[in-house]
């Protein structure tokens, strides 16, 4: 029994070792990824639930790894956060998506908006070149109001002071703040008010079970009416069925996003959608 136990331990530590080697190799590759243009953005439509019109896109990052193929953000964003590469990646996301937004606004929809995911590690990092970002925004002729930053509820709680100071600077530029994955963390309502949030995004897990007789239906209704009392707009994410959309619409949910409307799209497909909407 003793030797069996030892073997098991050996196996366990080998496994841990493998994981750290794997992580190190991902980190090294990620360092190259930016230089080699392996990172790119997809754009998922966010629609006005009353009119069904596309009003903004959420930029979602992808990594085309030369050997592994597409690596999902849930895999490499944590690696980027741990290694500090998140600042450089965040800079890429900000500039690339806003360059795209400026172009689309001038060609297709002058009031189109862009939503960008921002890591709290990035917000807390001393090398966040915020002034450079604001210059960039001005050079593109984009009003701050056309940009939203999406931050997750949990991380916000852990980095309160630094993050809320940074957010204030963005808000001074008119940039909107959206609280992502709402309902999965612990934020108190008073807290939302203090941080001066503009949008909350109801997490996909609530929308998934949004059916007659399910607790999620009451929860969504309560979240939406609460948010509206606080003058917050509500975006529901992960809408996959007409039924979910109808219930959210009935509750007065402002915006919606999900496979029912469109998956995250490459530039050409997003452009085709913008063009078709312009014809309506
Ligand atoms: P998130 O911000 O909550 O993004 C929504 C995720 O849900 C996206 O996954 C999107 O593709 C997926 N999704 C959208 N509609 C549906 C639907 O109807 N059904 C289902 N099942 N899924 C749907 P994705 O693109 O894999 O991104 C995963 C997470 O990675 C994001 O979650 C976000 O936290 C992070 N992420 C993505 N892009 C960036 C980025 O540029 N910077 C940072 N810091 N994080 C990013
Ligand atoms: Ca998001
Ligand atoms: Ca989310
Ligand atoms: Ca998420």
Low-pLDDT residue intervals, each spanning 5 or more residues = 1-5
Q: Roughly how many Å apart are the termini?
A: 74 Å
Report the strand count. 9
Q: What oligomeric state best describes the polypeptide chains here?
A: single chain
Characterize the largest beta sheet: strand count, sense, and whether it forms a barrel: 8 strands, mixed, barrel
Cross-sheet strand order for the largest sheet: 1-2-4-5-6-7-8-9
Query: Which range best describes the helical content: under 10%, 10-25%, 25-40%, 40-55%, 55-70% or over 70%?
Result: 40-55%
What is the H/E string?
Answer: HEEEHHEHHEHHEHEHHEHEH
Radius of gyration: 21 Å
Which structural class matches the secondary elements? alpha/beta
Mean pLDDT reading: 88
Instruction: Figure out the total of helices.
Output: 12
List bound small molecules: ligand C2E, calcium ion
Portion in beta strands: 15-25%
Shape: globular
Would you kindly provide a brief summary of this structure?
The protein is of the alpha/beta class and 280 residues long. The protein contains 12 helices and 9 strands. Helix content is 54%, strand content 19%.
Kindly describe this structure.
This protein is α/β, with parallel strands linked by helices. It is 54% helix and 19% strand. It contains twelve helices and nine strands. The chain has helices at 2-35, 73-83, 86-107, 120-124, 130-139, 153-158, 160-172, 189-195, 204-208, 215-229, 242-250, 267-279; strands at 39-48, 54-65, 69-71, 113-117, 147-152, 176-182, 199-202, 233-236, 255-256. A hairpin with a 3-residue loop joins strand 2 (54-65) and strand 3 (69-71). Helix 1 packs across helix 2. It is globular, with a radius of gyration of 21 Å. The protein starts with a helix and ends with a helix. The model is unreliable at 1-5 (pLDDT under 50). The structure holds ligand C2E and calcium ion (CA) (3 copies). Ligand C2E binds next to strand 2, helix 2 and strand 6. This is cyclic-guanylate-specific phosphodiesterase. Residues 23-278 form the EAL domain.
